[in-house]
Amino acid sequence: MIVEQFIAIAPQLLLSLAIVMQLLLIAFKRSQHSIAFFTVSAILLALFAHYPAMTNVNLAVTPLLYVDVFSLTINVLILSCSLVAVWVSYGYLRSAVECHDEYYVLLLLAVLGANILVLSNHFAAIFLGFELLSLSLVGMIGYLHLREHTLEAGFKYLILSATASSIMLLGMAFVYGATGDMSLAYQVPQQQDLQLLGQAGLVLIMVGFCFKLSLVPFHTWTPDVYQGAPMPVTLMLATVSKAAMFAIFVKFWLVSAIFNQDSMQFLLVCIAIASMLVGNLLALTQQNIKRLLAYSSIAHMGYLIIVLAIQSQQSVAWALKSGVFYILVYIIATLVIMIYLSGRSKAHAITDNDDWRGWQGLIWQRPLQGSCLILALLSLAGIPLTAGFIGKFYLFTVAIENQLWGAISALIIGSGIALYYYLSIIFCILAKPLETTSQTPIDKVGNFTVSHATVMGMLTVIIVALGLFPDILASQLIFQSEQVTIIFNEASQRF
Amino acid sequence: MIFTNIIAVLMVSAFIALLVGKRFARTLPYIAAIGVLISFALLAHFASNHHDLFHQAMPLVSVPWISSLGIEYATFIDSLSFILVALTLILALVCILVSVSEISQYQNFYYFNLLAALAGIVGVFAAADLFLFFFFWEVMLLPMTALIAIWGHENRRYAAIKFFIFTQVSSLLMLVAIIVMAFIYQQQFGDISFNYFDWQQLNIAMPLQYWLMLGFFVAFAVKLPSFPFHTWLPDAHTQAPTAGSVLLAGVLLKTGAYGLMRFVLPLFEQAATHFAPVAIALGVISIVYGAVMAFAQTDFKRLVAYSSISHMGFITLALFSFSPIAYHGAIVTLVAHGLSSAALFAMAGMLYQRLHTRDLKKMGGLFASAPRMGGMLLAFVAGAFGMPGLLNFVGEFMTLTGTFTHHPIATAFAATAMIGSAIYGMYLFQQSFQGKPQENVKIPDLRAHEWLLCSLLFGLLLYLGLFPQALLMHFDSIYPSVADAQLIGGKL
């Protein structure tokens, strides 16, 4: 190992070090305040460590990891999301009697897992990251063990996630059997009889990713787990886990040039279409905002994987740019809603405060929060003025460039269905406030502070700014994705 | 810059209304009116300076916006957009006048939405870049939906959601067509472009052109609305607050017609010619169906809403007959319907404020207590069913004359609507103002601002009806698409 390689993976090394330090800190002094502070600074350090790493990209660090701009971008995104997650968790857990310091260890482990997953260039690294992420998430989902739904959600996630991992492991074994190689760049084997084995392996690996991205037909766990998990953990699931899985799915798909195989392509488009339709249809009648976001995330991931169904190497750059832009926009909008929800919920309550009908008239009582939520919902629905529209516009361009007419129709129909539930929530926010005094009003619940409102406001400003001037970000991304294309070309030639 | 300035003025007054309105609610109508009047003054100033430039499209600004996709902030002006923007601003005043006494809740947000919707509509008429056009097309929807959803009548949420989903889904079809067009431009000319003037050089092969044309047509037919896509309109019009109905009927429907005139006919000539029989059939069905349905209504606003469907059918018919006279007739009908339906909805709003009902069965005999109002309603109803001397007559007459040469049967069917409109118009008037008075119903007559509003609209209808040349002189040199239309019309 040389110095450049250490610099390239310095963020991950810092995170690992921080985890050990966390354990020491717990042994030394049990204080929620200090460990939260420590976690935040560790994540910030890891974020800053990306500056030197950016100068030295396209570097293989051992056969396991490969650092390129695409992975670094996603990692920055993941770290920023986890920063938000730590901060809302602190507000959420603060009111509890117990001292929840092991929670932060789990959180950092999950972030490390996600980071490794994004960087990985080898099946072993993928599996390592995958398991690190899932197992820590299991612990976090079932963390509030006194809640009924939480334990159920934890178990559900544990069992289904383990199944998905083992299926993926089997797929890796198949691919290894066919090609004799564990690296991400899959080469179609020369012998006829091994090709089927290799392809079966690829499909099984894809199943693993689809499970984590909660794509139809592997979506059934999503609503229960989203609902059962404590609110900040739902936030992690919806942002950190989704971004990491999307990144590794993209790498898996593009580095191995799987888009050249028609049957895999067909499978992907089918999954995408099914996810868009099923996700949106199931979201229609949900009254629990967490369940609704779970179903809508199924649909959004369906939209998102359209970018993988490209026909030629030329479309890679544009598709990557669109994909990264879309997931970024999706994450920002989700963050706004989930920060609000986390601020309005407490760890020691029986459930989270997650019925959207309780938002009635919010805009008249709390104009800033109400308008942030409305803009975030509009962004999820893909309405102009918000970044969500630009994201959807990019997806449309990718789909049209590759002539995926089926996916386009599903995208239009899905967006139409989605409008119904997004608009219902928006109209609820805009309706006249309820005049009942029996319950505590919504703006008195939870540990919602000025900082929550500030961050929501800032993220909303980003949503609108990107909706009006997408080029401030997108022009950066195109530069990076062009590099990525070259890397992918090199990678697929090299192996 | 003229349209950009107007949009900016409207948006600035919208934000002023939003920010100061909570404390000084009484000043809100004045703020809004001042914003609209400044815009109008800007437009008038521009028009007096550039008298003869309107016959051809005149590019105004062009600033790169999303350069990776060749998208620009580009606007332009020609006679059509000038007239429609002028109509929009006149109706904006009407909207403000009818809102004065109607809106009592969340007034600052109301005026914000009203002005933002106006800005969006002006943007639609101004955009020369198709992405920008789509952007404004959607942006005008948001405040409009908010107007319906917050200040509407009893069934407002349903109506608002229906309105939004119909327009949004259809406009996504248009978005797909727009992106495909941009890619075709890239294939033919190398660079990607969403510019309208660039697209006029495009040469698209036939089956593809037909599909693209359909993508645009569906979006505009929903807005127009034409027969199979009309179901959102009665709900939205009925449930919207008065100003919302005025804006919807007066201007929003015109954006659909504008789209057909601006994009469908010039960009897809060949496909439009192929599609013409279907479009004409849809137009005639809309005309007859709207008239028949209007007659069956007992709700004042719903009746007017169905009559709008009928009148908009004339526009589809006129545009797809490719005759210059009918084309001019369509433009006249646009303005005429904008003014007269706005007037009728404003009347409905005034009646609703006095009686708290829109049900015609609960009205009757109002003439005794409100003669001026009755007289005005009669005048507007007469306008709507095409009384000579008012503008609507000119539009319908020109449309029917123009279409008759090529489509005599369709024209014959369409002409029956003249009778139908007289029936439902008289029905509307008799049910509300004539007949036996209901017990103890005495309503106050027109107030000053209502009187101003009615006479403004009626004066315009009468003046333009007597001198339609004031409108048509803007189009007297052969309009580009009319030139094509003559060519195509010769082939048919």
TrEMBL record, chain A:
A GO term, aspect molecular function: quinone binding
Enzyme class: translocase
Keyword Disulfide bond: no
Membrane topology recorded in Swiss-Prot or TrEMBL: Multi-pass membrane protein
E.C. number(s) listed in UniProt: 7.1.1.-
Entry keyword annotation includes Transmembrane: yes
Function of the protein: NDH-1 shuttles electrons from NADH, via FMN and iron-sulfur (Fe-S) centers, to quinones in the respiratory chain. The immediate electron acceptor for the enzyme in this species is believed to be ubiquinone. Couples the redox reaction to proton translocation (for every two electrons transferred, four hydrogen ions are translocated across the cytoplasmic membrane), and thus conserves the redox energy in a proton gradient.
Protein name listed in UniProt: NADH-quinone oxidoreductase subunit N
Organism: Thalassotalea litorea
UniProt gene name: nuoN
From TrEMBL, chain B:
GO terms for biological process, alphabetical: ATP synthesis coupled electron transport; electron transport coupled proton transport
TM spans (from-to): 6-21, 28-48, 73-98, 110-128, 134-151, 163-184, 204-222, 243-265, 271-296, 303-323, 329-352, 373-395, 407-429, 450-471
Residue ranges annotated for the NADH:quinone oxidoreductase/Mrp antiporter transmembrane domain, each copy included: 127-415
A GO MF term: NADH dehydrogenase activity
Location within or outside the cell: Endomembrane system; Membrane
Major site of localization recorded for this protein: membrane
Any single GO CC term annotated in Swiss-Prot or TrEMBL for this entry: endomembrane system
Membrane topology: Multi-pass membrane protein
The entry's keywords: Membrane, Transmembrane, Transmembrane helix
NCBIfam families for the chain: NDH_I_M
Similarity remark: Belongs to the complex I subunit 4 family.
Protein name: NADH-quinone oxidoreductase subunit M
Species assigned in the record: Thalassotalea litorea
